[in-house]
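Input:
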Amino acid sequence: MTGASASQKDYKTVIPGDVFALWVDRLGEQYTLTGPVGGGVTARFEDISRFAQMDLDYQSTMLPPGKRYLFEPAEEILSYDISGESNIPGNNRETGGKQQKISVNLPGLPAGRRALIGVHPCDVNAILYLDKVFLRGPYIDPFYTARRENTFIIALNCKSVTDLCFCHLLGAGPYLKARAGYDMLLTDMGRGKGFLVELVSEKARELFDIFSSGRPPEEKDLSAMREAEASLLKGFKKNLDMAGLQNALLSRPDHHALTETSDSRCLSCSNCVMVCPTCFCHNVREETGLSLSRGGKSRIKKIRRWDACQDISFAKVHGGNFRAKRHARLRQFVFHKLDYEGQLGTKGTVGCGRCIRWCPTGIDLTEIAMAMMK
Amino acid sequence: MSFYKKRAFRPRTGFFKFTCCTGCGFELAYFQKSLEETLRSFDFTFFRLASSAGSPEGPFDLALVEGAVTEPFQIIELKKIREKSKVLYAVGSCAIVGGIPAIKALSPEIEIERAAYKERFFGLSSTRPNVIDDYVKVDGHIRGCPPGERDLEEALASVLLGKKPEFIEYSVCMECKRGGNACVLVEEGLPCMGPVTNAGCGALCPAHHRACYSCFGLMGQANVPALKGKFRKLGFSEEDIERFFTLFGALEPSSTLI
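Output:
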């Protein structure tokens, strides 16, 4: 125990901001740099060439960086060619039942290396949640795995909280407590005092070759950090008894707080799900296109896209739609975020507040839960 | 010649036009990416925009119908087309939701006639506009103004493969968010119809900082009252809001809330 904490301490250093910036610029020789551009709550992660292009004071982004870059909005996972005279099933009668030849093409796994810089604690926790979905269990996703391995994550402790944040209720922020699953953790020490850099992964220790040019953190640095965190914690506006929600929401499936909100305000537009950093649902569709017989071959692609439980066709199965009503779909989202801990052993929310911010009518899942628990 | 080698199965196809701008026909005959494949794979026995030859008599493996129904004779024609076609797809917003020609549904015919022709025109038999679903069974809706490439290809390929087409049924917002566009409704307060509009366009307007104007028509279970409430909060007048919702949706029920 003591050994572990001592070595952790060893991998902390305080580095002047300009020195750190130069290191990031150099990292760009090996990695595509991706960081927050444009400030406030509408910043966006973009590929950049230099550290100076980033705004590390940003508060939030519309699309979460983890989901955006590790789990692509749309990607081809497979394609197959059908060769022969014709690919029309009914036509085989005319061609004497001639068999079609099918050959499967697997696309190459994503190979580009990317450094995600300035990822907030909620979004790092969301990546750890996506890991449980895509890296565990009987089916391991090769595309996610490849991107995850090729992505260097530099987390950044928050410098401000917004009115919609509730990460503090879930232990997902504003300072990152997780000690694995990402590479580096930055804490801005304030004006001109540089960054406190923590090297979490082996990879970070290998890449961060300027460790010795920093100074070891002193007690006053660590106490300043604690003070900063304490003052951030006072800034949160939302409060909710998270532990009390498990199975409690589920016992009130048709509560009027849900039905009234969904009838009067829910557009079923799926914005909440699209911007959610932990929503992992996707569908896989075969797209034939019309290039059916180019070169005597027909190529059919299987495309995976982000899907959403708010979409009316999401729960459409043979014989009907098991979430045909709007409030049943909103309920699925709210309960998946705040109740269903049984699925992956943790709540489906990290408290980033994106679903509230980007809902055109401002539906707030914490308000629904509060009204339901009254 | 070998390029257009006759396939064993080329569906006999008719393209029919009712009241509309013919934009869907243009899309199919001139603008879409898979034009070569379409011409090679389908035997257009009737397509006035592409060729003056051919006959509307049929029979057809596939009938594509664009335009709204605004005159009584069109109903009879439509029913004939249905009878002699194995598969009938409605193409474009006019045929599917009423589109632009349906705007006249908002005023009495007598006012529309006077506005258009100044005096009573006795040769005219224009009626209240309707979608083609009102009169015949439609096997699929290729939405758009003009149709989106994806749904158009899905529909045509499905006929060739003998499968049921799978059309997009979700909101423009899903395509918009996947594309990573800034939200013009939440961020800029533009009257974007994306949350209630059927996708298929790839969020073309929001990607160019324009509000969606619902040219694909409302999606299933669109919560119209909720979006109207949002527009009121943004400060738009009732008249403006009414216009946003009737530009392409004049025939849509004012509330599709479920």
